[in-house]
Amino acid sequence: MANAVPMAVQAEQFKASPDYVRISMAAAIELGLKPGRIMRNCSCGCINLLQNYPEGCFANCSYCGLARERPGAAEENTFIRVAWPLYATDLVAEKIASKETKGGVGRVCISQVQDSRAYDDLLDMVRRVHRAAPVVPISALVSATTLDEDRLRRIKAEGVDIIGVGLDAASEKVFENTRGKTTRSPHDWRHHWHIVRAARSIFGAYNVNCHVIIGLGESDRELVELFCQLHSGQIAAYLFSFNPELGTEMQHEARAPIERVRRIQLVKHLIETRELSPDAIVFDDMDGVTGLDVPGMTLEGALESGLPFMTDGCPDRAGNLACNRPYGSYRPGEEYRDYPFPPQAADMVVIRDEIRLEDIRTETEAVVV
Ligand code: SF4
Ligand code: SF4
Questions:
Q1: Which residues of 28-43 are buried (b: 16+ CB within 10 A; e: fewer)?
Q2: ∠ at Cα 23 (241, 341), nearest 5°?
Q3: pTM
Q4: Is the CB of 164 within 6 Å of ligand 2?
Q5: What separation in Å is there between the alpha carbon of 169 and the centre of ligand 2?
Q6: Into how many domains does the chain fold?
Q7: What does the alpha-carbon distance between residue 81 and residue 87 come to, in Å, rounded to a whole number?
Q8: pLDDT (tens digit, 9 = 90+) per residue, 325-364?
Q9: Residue 159 within a domain
């Protein structure tokens, strides 16, 4: 029968949170739930979990494989099914506890989707993880639309120490076009910012982060302004790269060119670590970055460190990167958009080739690469 939903798929759809949870493939391998190895034997520092409901998500973001109106969503939500296998939450909690006894888990992250059950279920899932592994740090990647200040306080009281907000869009216009009313989604730019600011005041400096995606139609200037705003508010910005999902509204949209990704990564790093001012960035008529008024040695030092090109995400208990999301912004076999480990010498050759630093004019000193 055409369009019949396979039995196994139907069964999965009814294994809902809080009793069941999806887990990233890298985290499933890390916990021994799936066989395999992550690229270059890199470890996965964060156990990323995702709520599961039969309907996927009631929001309708145009780039997301969980979107409500994604064509064919009911029949074959393949990306999330293959890449994020489903397990009983208590089993995952046990595996986390077991790994805690053998060297520790860097962090656990529970992602909400847009669903009326998502808030209560988040609290329930935090309790289940902490019942098994009482001191493992837990982030909540929240859907701001489900929250208010009281709920944020309750989430903190339950033991979550970091809040991530999927802002995703770098500007109000991009937000509206990709996840606001234009897309028949319930999300609202102002409410998202209200929750970001409330969370910042409740959870403290750098215990709140915004996920930001490059490639949703924003300009470089919008990204720069957002990074500066977040940095000045002591809110972390974690950069993701748009990667078109088959069957989504944006499935035919191109990814940001790698050269642009590398330059934005570098500029973001300089804003966050060297207080780079927007006045030191040269933009063209299209608001693209074309030059940096930065000493060549500063630029070269940042490049040489490899740090700008690593995945950025929540830290572990020692303050080191935990959430390195192998394959988070690219698929196995594709070029790294962000590196889940420090780039090695051969990686740096590739990065230097991609970034074409010689094209970024510096005012104070020539850059030699
Ligand atoms: S709210 Fe999140 S999970 Fe839901 S459609 Fe938007 S991006 Fe996807
Ligand atoms: S950076 Fe990772 S751990 Fe932190 S909120 Fe985002 S997905 Fe969760």
A1: bbbbeeeeeebeeeee
A2: 50
A3: 0.93
A4: yes
A5: 16
A6: 1
A7: 12
A8: 987 777 777 889 999 999 999 999 999 999 988 777 565 5
A9: yes
- Is the bond preceding residue 85 a cis peptide, omega within 30 degrees? no
CA 137 to ligand 2 centroid distance, Å: 12
Torsion of CA 242, 245, 247, 248, to 10 degrees: -30
Range of the domain at 37: 9-258
Ligand 2 pocket residue status of 323, Cβ below 6 Å = yes
pLDDT digits (tens, 9 = 90+) for 192-219: 999 999 999 999 999 999 999 999 999 9
Q: Is 117 inside any structural domain?
A: yes
Residue 351 lies inside a defined structural domain of this protein: no
Rounded distance between C-alpha atoms, residue 59 and residue 10, angstroms: 21
C-beta of 107 in contact with ligand 2 (< 6 A): yes
Residue 342 lies in a domain: no
Residue 76 pLDDT > 60, yes or no? no
Q: What is the CATH number for 42?
A: 3.20.20.70
In whole angstroms, give the CA distance from residue 301 to residue 173: 35
